[in-house]
Amino acid sequence: MIIEILIMLFFILGVGNQNDGVLVLGATNIPWVLDSAIRRRFEKRIYIPLPEGNARTYMFKLNLGDTPHSLTDEDFRLLGQQTDGYSGADISIVVRDALMQPVRKVQTATHFKYVSGPSRENPNIILEDLLTPCSPGEPGAFELTWEQVPGDKLYEPVVSMRDMLRSLADSRPSVNDEDMDKLRKFTEDFGQEG
């Protein structure tokens, strides 16, 4: 789990007879709502900033995992650059939505075409009669709905950069400038940079 924004640590020493060396870790995105009594009990208050470009690039790769896709390293770098101000959770939401884009393509398709691809039962066998969604003007396109495609003949499109960009266009970062200003002020007053 990626802990963002703020991590507070403290050791409880000498509480009871058996609790020496207990580590208590707390995290919050809204530290300014903590009262002073709670803040005093945390020895360290460490601000962890939102991920930078390289970290966001890696998060896109990590969240996509081994899902079939057509993204290049350059595509991932571009996604990392275009998501300034996004948290790890925000990036996870964008990727989850992008993973649904191929399903939406299949469900909304009015035309399909034949393609080659691996068999579902045995990926080492290549079938020539799989069906994938396409636009009506594509060569080999014929009118068909996804409900008419036999399940074992459906070749789902892979996740593409276009899918990622479409999902990104529909999302916004969950942390706004006002929250960032409050976090900077809290760090100046009570914390330290991570």
Automatic annotation (TrEMBL):
Tell me the GO molecular function terms. Answer: ATP binding; ATP hydrolysis activity
Task: Domain (ATPase AAA-type core): give its ranges.
Answer: 8-50
Q: Keyword check for Transmembrane helix, yes or no.
A: no
Q: Where is the Spastin/Vps4 C-terminal domain?
A: 131-191
* Signal peptide annotation: 1-17
Q: Which domain of life is it from?
A: Eukaryota
Tell me where in this chain the AAA ATPase AAA+ lid domain is found. Answer: 73-111
Q: Which PANTHER family match?
A: AAA DOMAIN-CONTAINING, VACUOLAR PROTEIN SORTING-ASSOCIATED PROTEIN 4A
Q: What is this protein called?
A: Vacuolar protein sorting-associated protein 4B
* Primary gene name: VPS4B
